[in-house]
Design a protein that fits this description.
This protein is an alpha/beta fold and 392 residues long. The chain folds into two domains: 55-210, 3-Layer(aba) Sandwich (Rossmann fold), CATH 3.40.50.2000; 219-239 and 246-391, Glycogen Phosphorylase B (Rossmann fold). 39% of the residues lie in helices and 16% in strands. It is built from 14 helices and twelve strands. It has helices at 13-44, 70-74, 77-86, 101-105, 124-136, 151-159, 192-201, 219-238, 270-283, 313-321, 332-338, 353-356, 373-384, 388-391, and strands at 60-65, 91-96, 111-116, 139-144, 161-169, 179-182, 255-259, 288-292, 306-308, 325-329, 344-348, 364-367. The strands form two sheets. The chain has a six-stranded parallel β-sheet with strand order 3-2-1-4-5-6, with helices on both faces. A six-stranded parallel β-sheet has the order 9-8-7-10-11-12, sandwiched between helices. The radius of gyration is 22 Å and the shape is elongated. The model is unreliable at 1-9 and 241-248 (pLDDT under 50).
Amino acid sequence: MPSSSRRPAGLSRPGKASWRISRALRELRGTARHRLGQAAARLIGPRSYAAELRPDEISSVLICRINARMGNAVFLTPLIQRLHELLPHASLVLATAYPKADDLLGRLPGVRRVIRFPYKGVQLPWRYLAAVRRLRRERFDLVIDPSPNSTSSRIVLMLARARCRLGYATDYQWAPLTHAVPLPDATMHQAAQPAFLVSRALGAECDPRQVRLWLPLAPSELEAGRAAIARALGTAVAQEAPGPVGQGAAPEARAFGYFAHATGLKTVDPNYWRAFWDAFLELQPDAVPVEILPSPASVRIDSRGASVHFPSPRALTAAMSAMRLFISADTGPMHLASSTPVPTVGLFRASDPALYGPLKPCDLALDMTRYSPHAAAECCQRIWRTPREVNG
């Protein structure tokens, strides 16, 4: 049963104070950005926007999402899928700051190229100007700012050479849009907002509840992912005493993947993870934990099971596809897992799952302020015992 405590789980007292300060600073930054946007919009004054876009007049599209996080890059996949459905002959160009965007998104249907903007490092201004020059070499029929709150995306939208500019109409929208869509009244997942925006602008229906993360993988990629997990589990399975569950079952059919290395407000204490595995392996001793490491040098959270690192997001997604279940803190790998048929469990304590949670019907978001490690393990066991055909 859920714990009755409302405090962030798995934190020491100094950690809780730091968590509160970090959250307050994040909310302060968001409020300041919102109010500055309102001031800029009032300064520009009222504007009128055109009605629906005409699909037959759009052959080139630029998507601006200047953010370096994996999760926000994955949130673009429903938009790319929707654009490819509504504008099957259009070429799509992505402007993003996610360092591995070429690997993750560059091979999606309809995507022609990726323009990567820097987000940190030496010579940042010169690298940014170089990205702007690449952007302005081409003129687009349509430029899209898919986020209601991204200042950097609005700047790039403003710099792009385009006939039409599309974004959300809000009281803090200052970008020079030609077409705009009002924000929906109801809460909408961050991955559904971009798909909803372009559907409305093109006069198409879009049910946000049906939006799913989308990362199609080739059969060769899926087979490579399955083989990688089988190799990683070889040692872990060999160290176990033989039992009836292990006999005749592929090792990856027992793989329970997890990603524990979140940062900032999303960090889950290592003690929480170890208590979770104590509880889950007691409930389901046939499971084999597989820890996904963010780098080859990362320290493992728990020595039980196996560990793997994949430098490629697509290779990681393919490996996750071979697992039976995946659990993660609220991070990019959680969203990659949610793009696969594998049931995905997200541990939340700093973000709203309605906005950032995993999206499949078989996925689950757990509020860590309410779920102890044992309660989380019981939830995962129920999913573990559900046949994969139903989960998928």
